[in-house]
Amino acid sequence: MTELEQKQQLVELAKSFYQRGYSVGGAGNLSVRLDDNRILVTPTGSSLGRLDADRLSVLDMQGNVLSGDKPSKEYVFHLALYQQNPKCNAIVHLHSTYLTALSCLDDLDQDNAIKAFTPYYVMRVGKLQVIPYYRPGSPEIARELSERALTGKAFLLANHGIVVTGSDLLDAADNADELEETAKLQFILQGQKIRYLTDDEVKDLENRGK
Q: Where is the Class II aldolase/adducin N-terminal domain (predicted)?
């Protein structure tokens, strides 16, 4: 895929997230690895529903702006994930309704905020680790994600939103979609007796994905 095609794909996916209410105003940011030393990031303060492909930020792996507008202030945690995980080629950060609501709950399991009850959740993301609360843009978010970069595909930022990775931008977007739907189902099922997947069932799904 050419750089222009990557830019156009990012704009289209971002608009889809915005139109479905997964981000509002200037919230959320997306990025994709262009090559070994460059990433494409949404600009600071930009709405995911009104991006311009020509103004997307291109950074090197040291955070220097090579072209486009000033990047999102959260580009630092995007870089941290790319630097620590060579299999991470795209990142979606959203303030989608159900996942953000989940992030505001107290006493979540920090290792996995959603216990598996559908196979699709397991196959897409496996588990959802919780990152402690830090103000948006804090370098501590990057540090926390850097330490966990090789331990999962999805991270819930406490009182903030979600960070989801993927092998490419479509994969990251699909992972984010599945995760938001899983969070929605969890809220719908509150107060009900849920049949969770057993450890053996989860392992079977994980092994099929290897």
A: 8-187
CA-to-CA distance for 98 and 187, rounded, in angstroms? 8
Instruction: State yes or no: pLDDT of 182 exceeds 60.
Output: yes
Please give the class, per CATH, of domain 3-208. Answer: alpha beta
Answer yes or no: is pLDDT of 191 > 80. Answer: yes
Average the pLDDT over 102-120 and give the result. 97
**Which residue out of 18, 22, 74, 180 is catalytically annotated?**
74
The residue from 120, 147, 201, 206 that is catalytic is 120
Q: CA nearest 74: which of 84, 88, 59, 86?
A: 59
Has 74 been annotated as catalytic?
A: yes
Answer yes or no: 201 catalytic: no
By C-alpha distance, which of 24, 210, 39, 197 is closest to 100?
Answer: 24
What are the φ and ψ backbone dihedral angles of 53, each rounded to 5 degrees?
A: -55, -35
Q: What is the pTM of this model?
A: 0.96
Q: At what angle do helices 3-19 and 169-188 cross, to 10 degrees?
A: 10
Structure-block tokens of residue 198? 């057993």
pLDDT score of 207 more than 90: no
Q: What is the mean pLDDT of residues 154-179?
A: 98
168 is written with which tokens? 């490419």
Q: Where are the domains of the chain?
A: 3-208
